[in-house]
């Protein structure tokens, strides 16, 4: 579900952003409130309206700047028992790319998405529909971002971060993306390097080396590039070493057991994959006349370096404090999570409305993603 177009962005490159959204398939989870409230922009969820997200198709803007997919996860055992006596309040219409929320017997709301993935969608299908086009554009030298947003316990970490060690069919977007990248690049001439960070209570930490704490964000005033020089940058040459890094990162990530998810992520995890490709410049042959003799002169053009950045963001889930049962420190975490999600929502909203001002300064999460949003404001 990558952007089909793209936005003119720095050095003639293009920023392609992609937002992923996971929702629970649960009749008693009040999906309506989680869909329409919190930080997810209303404009990101098109209510029975054909307008395109990101940049409206009919306003002359670039289409597909932000694309949104919804994935429903299967009910878990608890939900199956609890929901047994209730009719489904969520109905998916994948062929129409719509999700219908039944408010009561006679009233419902309908939302349109760029992709609708049912609870039967495999990890492979989700990757192909949501992430593969973004990965392909990164290989072409663009910046691309895939984010999973949604209420706690809805399957964001499952969708993005699953390593699939027991069953390869379970592999999530991060693992599949690297597989595709490594298959495409040439290790002699190209380089692939990753940083893996977490943003916890407004502080950035290195998931690959927790000793690197409180990392600062550096923004290049000229190019608008965002970098985190304090974080480890590890060159990847083999898929196995990447999976090993993900495992290491996962072990350092803050998680807690809440009423809604036994393994609830309490930080936002941000994987940055830098792909630098060297494209051989075309040699040209010129004919020159030296001393009355005609010679063929070969000019060697320097290789063109093409850089792309893939950012995969596994957001901590938004939560209703009353439902998650967060208290004490976990409550403070939840407040911080909800705050940065709301800042992110405002930025997505601004992008979706093609607004000239994207308020990236409101949180570290949005500052970190600044060059993924495109534009310089
Ligand atoms: N598509 C799916 N198929 C089967 N199980 C799933 C699926 N999606 C999620 N799950 C299971 O649901 C539970 C919650 O998923 P996960 O931890 O990914 O949620 P989350 O959205 O990351 O939550 P949080 O915001 O609290 O971190 C996990 O046990 C996970 O294995
Ligand atoms: Mg999670």
Automatic annotation (TrEMBL):
Residues 1-58 are annotated as: Disordered. InterPro entries: KIF11-like, Kinesin_motor_CS, Kinesin_motor_dom. Residues 65-377 form the Kinesin motor domain. It holds the Pfam family Kinesin. It comes from the Eukaryota. Residues 1-18 have a biased composition (Polar residues). Residues 26-45 have a biased composition (Low complexity). GO terms for molecular function: ATP binding; microtubule binding; plus-end-directed microtubule motor activity. GO terms for cellular component: mitotic spindle; spindle microtubule. Keywords: ATP-binding, Cytoplasm, Cytoskeleton, Microtubule, Motor protein, Nucleotide-binding. It is found in: Cytoplasm, Cytoskeleton. ATP binds at residues 150-157. GO terms for biological process: microtubule-based movement; mitotic spindle assembly; spindle elongation. Belongs to the TRAFAC class myosin-kinesin ATPase superfamily. Kinesin family. This is Kinesin-like protein. It comes from Citrullus lanatus (Watermelon).
